Structures are given as structure tokens and as C-alpha cells.
Amino acid sequence: QAVALILVLCVSGMRAETARYSVPEEAERGSFVANIAKDLGLTGEELLARQARLVPEGEKQYLELNQRTGDLVVREQMDREELCGQREPCLLRFEVLLENPLQSFRAEVRLTDINDNSPLFLNREIVLRMPELTTPGTRFLLGSAHDPDVGNNSLQHYSISSNEYFHVYTQRRNDGGRYAELVLDRALDREQQAEVAFSITAVDGGTPPRSGTALIRVVVLDINDNTPVFTQTLYKVSVMENSSQDTLVVIVSASDLDAGTNGEIVYTIFQNSEENLQTFKINPETGQIRLKKPLDYEEKKTYEIDVQATDGGGLSTHCKVEVQVKDVNDNAPEVIITSLTSTLSEAAPPNTVVALFNVRDRDSGDNGRTTCGLTGEQPFRITLLAADAYALVTSETLDREQVEEYNVTVEARDEGSPALSARRTLLVRLLDVNDNAPTFTQAIYTMVMSENEPAGRNLGRLSATDPDAGENARVRYALVPPPTGTLAAASFVSVDAESGTVRSLRPLDYEKVRAFEVTVRAADGGSPPLSAQAVLRVVVRDENDNAPVLLHPAPDSSAAGELVPRWAPSGYLVAKVVAVDADAGQNAWLSYELAKATEPGLFRVGLHSGEVRTARAVTERDAARQRLIVLVRDRGQPSRSATATLAVALVDDFSDAFHQLDHDPASGQQPQVAEEELLTTYLIASLCCVSSLFLLSILVLTASTLCKARVRAELPPPSPSCYVDGDFASDCVGSTGTLSPAYRYEMYLTSGSGRSEFQFLRPILP
């Protein structure tokens, strides 16, 4: 019955020893050996769940494991003599592998011998020639019987049938084998009996015992009174196991004092072992013993050869030759993989088991001692579990993004001289874990879209990469919802989830939205997903979609009236045309030109200022009423424009102002003289008041000019909203332009005669 010393094999903190069982040879298939589950402290369900299996040391599987019951049974009938020969003990080694977690238990089954073989003599008839003068007590070596069984079942003793001349002794060799020596009890007399015949029986120690017999015929020879004598009764030699065929082992030598044919010696190897006859040969004349085939230390370490020297008269003697086979490092180590995990998660912690393997070397001594290691710099190491049993484990954390797979080479080397080695390469592939977030190629993406561009326009493409693999590397894009209460810029553009292409969702007005920013998220397909964010800035490019807007003169007035005295010199400021353009850049750069005039040579317009000035001094020949059309044009492509109409009255003095402006030749009506005279009176009276007010205005104007320069930098930019009907808005005082908005004039004229009053109001100052 099995004696189980099960010690658990495990990696990272568990120990391992060997469980031992026994089973008789020739056991029937299905015979019970042991219960593995009971010895391991596991149930049949646990064995089944952990996929328990046997891994034999050799190529053939003689045992099998019932995963449901945990019974270890015989799978194939075993012959101990065929598997192990004379070696004792005869062991079948195997490992029990469990998964989840990965564990290995070493065990061995000893095949116990049964008495299934009888002793057998190599020769059924043994012929001995003895001279009649052989003295009683002389011993004669007999051919041994062969019994392949071992222990008590092997050959134990010899016996011979009853006779009056001989008895037999059973002798024991150093290797445990037994052989027979025939002892002469009384002197022979050829004249009385020329031949003595009897049987010899070899008996083993089995229950019941088995035996084999052979016939011994002793031929009595005539007188030959000197037997050959060996120089040594025991020859001890050693031979290297890698010696080739016909290598000389030893030379035995014997001499005989007789002369003639009685002194001629012939050497033979005594047939006490079939293996010896197949391995060695002897020259019958010289006594040279040579190899018939190469030796193998791993198969047999010692040979005992019985050599017989026989003279021509039939007398013989024998000696023993002990051949010690010397081990040579002729066997490289073997790396035997018992379990391998070919795919490993990159998140596996250090000391994770990758493979279990054994290293075996058939040599002995230093030639059979092995060391094991890894070649190259890799994140693995080898852990010794038991004698010649190792585990390949991870030594540090792994990163699939740096190395996707490893070719791990295990090298086993013995300590022989020269040392032999063997290598085994294991392919370990890493499985991806979502441990890397996507990465944008830029932190901020800037794209440009044109004003009024239709929806669906491709603005550009975002790009993010993820070094992971499979779904963990699949990147999807999405806009991050803006905080509540902020500009809903996410409604202006869309991002394709797969490609990252950015498209416009609706046309935009540069005058309302000049640029906007959205946050884009790139998330991978892992579980849980990882993400990164980038800023998408979209700049709206201005298009020339706004024509200039006239602020002065007002576009809704038919014509603006201006008064110019006839004494005005060249360069006299008549008026200033003020316009703005809601566009930006070049599209908002305005230029002014005189498109049409009653007298083109009298007036000129500043190209950039819009100031209308006299091009020459006014003369008496110039018409009293002048009509000017000023064209305002931007620099867009195509350009847009607007026109302003100015009515200019040339007066000798301001008393003629109303008459010049109010007179319409087409009407055919003349103002009444009385009304004109009345108006003149009013004007003269008003002129005196205005003159005093004018002097006061000059003083105020000087003070305001000094203050205006100080505050102009702090004032907001010009806006079309500043130029409205009525009084100037308070926030428009500091607006920039070609004509300072600080000066605005209003004229009030009464209907009636040319003497109507007019008032020159004070400038509106900040």
C-alpha cells in the first residue's frame, strides 16, 4: 500500500517534497494505486475544477488519474524487468499539476517485484573435463543461471542431484549475484567410471519458489598433472564510457608447466552472463579482452568477467576481471517543460508563475550536477522549487507598450569538463491592459472658418493616439459640454466620434462671434475608459459683408447744409463726412472721394479723413449753391460703398445763410421783402449776442482741448451706436475718427424773410 509523504509544491512561499507509492508489477489495468485527492486534502470536485493531470517523467503514461474520485490507477500493465532491468528500486516518477492557482506535486510509484521469472541456465548441458588425479576439495566454476527478478525473487541457491563424487557451493558476487562452485568430494578413477552425470538446480526465493535445471557431464581425463595458473586471480581495470569498439580493456595471462599440448593454453570468457558475452570478447591465444560495443555508464557501471584458461590436456583454471566504467560528460542536460502559460497579462504582479520545468542530466557526479539560468536581460527569473525542479516567474512589472512578447531562453549547464549545456526557448505573449490614456498631438488646436460659411464645412481634424491595443486603443472623440451660463460654443461645430474631423454646424457672423473655444475629449474603449482633453479654438475670418454706414451727414437726410463764406481761403474746412464699417481689417478700411460736384475744382475730400475742404479760394464767380456727392468705399473684395450728399451755400456773411439755404429756384417763389428785412434785424441783434458767446466758446474750447488729449486713450472705440439722432451719447465723446466728435453744430433758422435769426450753439464737450 502506498506510503504518501505529500508535500505541496508551490511558487512564492510554498514548499515541495515527493509523495511515494508502490504497486506490484504486472498489476491489471485499472488497479488501484492510491487516492491522490485524499493525500492532497482535496475533494474530487476540486481536482476536476483545477484540471488536475499527471505529467510523467518519461514519454509513456503507465498511470492515470480519475479526476472525479482522485484515484490513481494503473493505465497499462508494467513489467518491472522490462522497465528497470536489475536496477532496484524501480521508480516511476511523475508530477500532479493543478491550475487556478498553478501548483505542482511530485510523486513516485515504486514497482515491487513479483516472482514471475524462473532461473535459467544459458547452457542446458554443462560439460566438465577433469583429470583423474584431481585432488578432492578442488573447486570448479559452473555457469550461472540467470533470473531477471530482484530481491528475494532472484536466484538464491544451487543444488545438485545426489552423486558420490561432488557437492555444490553457492557463492555471492560483489554485485549481489550468486554463482555455483562444484567441489570434488572423492578422487576420480577413469578406469572405474569415465564420466559422471548429474543435474544442477537453481532455485529463487519467491513464494512459491521457481527453479531451473541443467545437466552436468563430468568427463574424467587421463593424467595431466599441471593446471594453468593466472598471474592474478583478480584483475581490476577501468574504462571510459566513451571508449570505441575494439578498445583494449585488459590482457590476462596464465602459464602451464606441462609441455606439449598439455601446456598450450586457450582463453575463454566463461558464460556466466549473456550481457558480458555481448559486451566483451577475448583473444583465445593472447588473452586480450576488447570491447565488442561502446559502454554506457548510465546503463551499467560495473562488469564482472570470469575468464577461463584451459590447457591442451583439458585442465583449466579461472580468474575474475572487474571492469569499472568511468563516467564521461557525454549527456547534455535536458530541460523538460511540465507547464507553460504562453499568454500573460501585462498587469501580472512580480513572482507570477509563467512556467514549471525540470532539468535532468543522465551523467553522475559533477557531470550530472546542473545549474539553470536565463540568457539576456529580461523581466523574469528562475526559482528553485526542489531538486532539479524550477519555476519561471516574473521579476518585475511588465509593460506591453514597450515589449509585446518575450522569447525567454532557459539554459541548463552541467559541471562537467568540458561543460555541456542545453537551451529551451519559451514564447511569452503579453495581454494588453487599459493602462494608457489617449494623448492628443497638440494641447491647443486652432482652426479657421470664414464668416457666413455654410454648415457642414470641414474645418480640420483632431488626432489622439493610444499606445494600448485592440479596444483599449480605439479612440473616440466628443465635445465636453460647456458650463451652464457660458456661450454655447458647442452648437457651432461638431466632432466626428471616429475620425476626429471638425465640421461647422451653422454660419457665423464675424461681427457677433469673432472666435470661440470648446473642449474636446478623447476616450479609449477600455473598461473603465481613460480619456484626455484638448482645447479647440476656432477663429472666424471676416468677410466683406457690411457696407460703410454714414454717421455724418445722416443717411436719412436728403442733403446736409453747410455754409462757406466767400472769403474762405484754399483748404478751408467745409465739413467732414464720417462713416464706419462693421467689418474688420482691410474690409473696414475706408477711403473717401469726391464723386460729383457742382464745381469739381472748388472742393476736395481727404482720402482717409473724409474732410471736405476748399481746393482754392472762393471767388465771386462761384455759384452760391454747391451740391457735393462724396463716395465712401471700403477695401474688401469685392468692395462695398455708400454716398453722402452735401449742400454748400456760399455766403457773403451769415445773414445770407437762411436765404441761400431756403431758396429753391425751382419753386419760383420769392421771399417777401418784409420778412427779409425783419430777419435781417433779428440777425444783427443776434450777431451781437453770438459774438460775445463766441469769445466765451473759444476759451472753453481751449480748455476742453487740453482735457480731451488726457482722456482720449481711456475712451472706448467708435461704435455705430454712438452716432444717433439727438444729442451725443455720453460714451461717444472719446471715440476716434477723422473728425473729433467734440464739435457738433446745430443751426436753427425761422421761416420767413432773410433776416430770420440763427443761433450758433456751443460745442458739446465731454
TrEMBL record:
Gene Ontology terms: cellular component: plasma membrane
Superkingdom, taxonomy of origin: Eukaryota
Presence of the UniProt keyword Transmembrane in the record: yes
Alphabetical list of CDD domains matching this protein: Cadherin_repeat (cd11304)
MF terms in GO: calcium ion binding
Keyword Repeat: yes
Protein name listed in UniProt: PCDBG protein
Name of encoding gene: Pcdhb16
